[in-house]
Task: inverse folding
DNA sequence: GACTATAACATTTTT
DNA sequence: TGTTATAGTC
């Protein structure tokens, strides 16, 4: 009995087909990860391929880690030498070694979308672009697409021809590139593009990697874009052992430049390609799968395939329409609670999927008050938080002095009396002399009209230079701690807002933990701990990478983030025309956009293993105004016999809408009761100080006039205590720093 | 230069 | 609605 006996015929065929180009069309839940991992195992164990020669590219770090682990379990040894990584981290690894050949410094920084935006603002200011006409977002998007098509600014300009607008954008593109280079920075698209350019211009480098990666596998191939295709094509062009796995029905990143033709035309580009279809679904019940099939069948221009399953019918798909998004969230949360309490499932078996991140807020409130563990994936990325970006900007400045963006971010954070005028002076001076911002700071006394600002600038430079020395002597986490301490960052955020300070400090602690974790991983793998390495890891994490299967919480995320995952119980919330499919795509004249939304719906449905609930609301608040939505057209594409609207007040043979109308009066009372519960619960939470941070017991151990001690400010006398909604606001006259207002919950004052 | 009040924009999705 | 950029005031 071998490990391959558990595979079905098609899967075996895919595993055993190791030489030459291969396209695996793998429907949702058809076991494609199993095929990929077994294929790697087969290459190593049966074909004697050196693990060193295998490259597997996935979409997220999470998928990469999972694949490595599963290969590990199959082959035991040697798997750590396989390259399993995402496109972006693979490129960074290659670029760190060779980017000098393209005229960059090896410790380049990676700009995320926020940085891009800041940079674009600067560019627009410099070129005097009217951002009313040329929106920054649009400019970034256009440039990103150009990069995905591998167009240089010059080529873009040529293509623009006589078009005034396009020529203007070409100007912006050119300047944007210039600035990136001056900052020794690459944006996400550059990581791919520069790697391709490296391969195109450096024959020997390309040959080295072609020789190394004799067997290449690409997961989620339907979501690759132009550069990614070229990258893979270049790498595989020598040995042609390229195996791509994908599902055209799950292509949902067209807006980001993914080109579905990569998968549709695979056989045209690789003429000798074999094609294997995996059509048996192992994941979902027949009802769920049939619903998915029915929905996706409304799309045109698909690769021909029909997903089938041996699984039993299972429950019908539940559908519920509510009055408001509030009711919707209420229902879903209590439904989950009910199932868990009955012992039918754990929290982690449940996922709530929605179209837009904004929808998560409502659920979050409900979960907090219901005291149910939950995890929201996406939304505001951890690394996009202000305090994290600040600290990282310090690290970037220490690591790569050319990163002007980082320097300017922190030059007056915490406040050190360096204002806009000074910054602008330096900026002008730097632009005039074509020098870096930080470089100019070092010779600040040479800058005209800088006046009394000079001493402040000099002490800032001294601080950074001090950190640079530290960087050589201290470990990474010590350096970060040093930066936090020396800059007085914690005190500064405490001073501006006590309420937020606590969360921000927790985030900073979390960042410190991540540094330590990074150091440990490096140690394990016997790799050097570098600042650049940490910063790059930080730049390339997706929020989904933080999803932990071993923690018992309900998972909330967008449909996009859910791709590649599966859950026993899935809720698709906000199934409304105008929300999903989104208003943009409904009104767009391009029918392709609606098809992409439908594929998104297909992805959502096929995430469910055994139970699927779809919900919608008649009205919901969007951007401050109430929107009235009809239920999603996608819902109507699900055959009625697969749907249950059902429960106590369901009749039979009625249309979906009729049912929902009947439901309403009943729900109202439910809703009101729930609302009542919400209020009392929320209050209880305050009392316990659990979610809002009031001191346990609710009483303070000190009163007005008492002497207290604060961890940072030292000793002082309490002037007043004001009962706030959530906490006590305490005013203390400290002996040293003077009078401070703070909240009792995290001031942690001690009576003396 | 720092702080505050107002206006403007955003919401479709993100490696 | 909520955040963030800008203008205006101290």
Result:
């Amino acid at each position: 009995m071998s490990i391959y006996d558990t595979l079905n015929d098609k899967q075996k065929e895919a595993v055993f087909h190791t030489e030459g180009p291969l396209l695996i069309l793998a429907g949702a839940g058809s076991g494609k990860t199993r095929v990929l991992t077994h294929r790697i195992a087969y290459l190593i164990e049966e074909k004697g391929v050196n693990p060193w020669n295998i490259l597997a590219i996935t979409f997220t770090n999470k998928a990469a880690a999972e694949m490595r682990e599963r290969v590990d379990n199959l082959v035991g040894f040697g798997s750590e030498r396989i390259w399993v990584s995402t496109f972006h981290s693979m490129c960074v690894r290659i670029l760190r070694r060779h980017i000098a050949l393209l005229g960059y410094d090896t410790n380049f920084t990676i700009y995320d979308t926020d940085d891009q935006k800041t940079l674009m603002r600067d560019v627009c200011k410099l070129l005097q672009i009217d951002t009313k006409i040329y929106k920054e977002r649009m400019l970034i998007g256009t440039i990103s697409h150009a990069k995905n098509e591998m167009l240089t600014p010059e080529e873009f300009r040529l293509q623009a021809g006589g078009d005034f607008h396009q020529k203007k954008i070409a100007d912006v593109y050119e300047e944007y590139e210039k600035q990136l280079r001056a900052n020794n920075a690459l944006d996400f698209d550059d990581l791919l593009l520069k790697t391709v350019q490296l391969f195109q211009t450096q024959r020997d480098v390309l040959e080295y990697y072609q020789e190394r990666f004799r067997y290449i596998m690409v997961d989620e191939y339907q979501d690759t874009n132009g550069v990614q295709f070229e990258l893979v094509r270049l790498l595989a062009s020598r040995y042609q052992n390229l195996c791509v796995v994908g599902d055209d029905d799950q292509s949902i990143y067209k807006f980001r430049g993914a080109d579905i033709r990569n998968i549709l035309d695979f056989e045209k580009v690789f003429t000798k390609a074999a094609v294997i279809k995996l059509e048996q679904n192992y994941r979902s019940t027949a009802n769920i799968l049939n619903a998915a099939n029915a929905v996706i069948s409304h799309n045109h221009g698909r690769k021909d395939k029909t997903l089938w399953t041996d699984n039993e019918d299972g429950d019908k798909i539940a559908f519920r329409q509510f009055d408001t998004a509030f009711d919707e969230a209420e229902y879903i949360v209590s439904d989950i609670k009910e199932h868990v309490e009955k012992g039918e499932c754990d929290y982690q078996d449940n996922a709530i999927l929605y179209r837009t991140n904004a929808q998560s807020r409502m659920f979050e409130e409900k979960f907090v008050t219901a005291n149910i563990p939950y995890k929201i994936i996406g939304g505001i990325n951890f690394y996009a938080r202000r305090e994290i970006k600040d600290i990282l900007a310090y690290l970037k400045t220490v690591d790569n002095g050319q990163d002007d963006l980082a320097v300017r971010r922190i030059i007056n954070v915490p406040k050190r009396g360096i204002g806009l005028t000074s910054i602008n002076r330096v900026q002008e001076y730097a632009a005039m002399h074509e020098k870096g911002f930080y470089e100019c700071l070092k010779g600040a006394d040479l800058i005209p009209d800088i006046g009394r600002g000079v001493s402040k600038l000099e002490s800032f430079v001294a601080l950074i230079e001090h950190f640079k020395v530290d960087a050589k002597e201290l470990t990474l986490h010590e350096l970060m701690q040093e930066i936090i301490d020396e800059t007085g960052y914690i005190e500064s955020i405490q001073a501006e807002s006590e309420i937020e300070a606590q969360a921000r400090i927790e985030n900073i602690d979390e960042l410190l933990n991540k540094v330590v974790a990074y150091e440990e991983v490096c140690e394990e793998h016997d790799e050097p701990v570098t600042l650049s390495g940490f910063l790059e890891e930080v730049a390339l994490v997706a929020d989904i990478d933080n999803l932990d299967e071993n923690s018992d919480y309900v998972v909330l995320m967008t449909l996009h983030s859910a791709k590649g995952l599966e859950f026993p119980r899935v809720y698709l919330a906000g199934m409304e025309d105008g929300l999903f499919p989104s208003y943009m795509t409904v009104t767009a004249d391009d029918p392709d956009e609606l098809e992409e939304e439908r594929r998104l719906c297909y992805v959502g449905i096929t995430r469910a293993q055994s139970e699927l609930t779809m919900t919608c609301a008649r009205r919901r608040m969007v951007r401050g105004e109430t929107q009235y939505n009809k239920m999603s057209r996608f819902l109507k594409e699900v055959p009625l016999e697969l749907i249950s609207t059902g429960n106590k007040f369901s009749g039979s043979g009625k249309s979906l809408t009729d049912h929902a109308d009947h439901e309403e009066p009943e729900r109202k009372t439910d809703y009101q009761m729930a609302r009542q519960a919400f209020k009392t619960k929320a209050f209880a939470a305050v009392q316990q100080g659990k979610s809002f941070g009031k001191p346990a017991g609710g009483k303070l151990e000190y009163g007005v006039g008492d002497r207290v001690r604060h961890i940072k400010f030292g000793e002082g006398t309490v002037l007043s205590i004001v009962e706030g909604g959530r906490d006590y606001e305490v005013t203390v006259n400290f002996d040293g720093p003077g009078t401070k207002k703070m909240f009792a919950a995290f001031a942690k004052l001690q009576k003396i």
About this structure: The CA atoms of residues 376 and 556 of chain A lie 5 Å apart. Residues 648-698 of chain A have pLDDT under 50 and may be disordered. The longest helix of chain A spans residues 656-688.
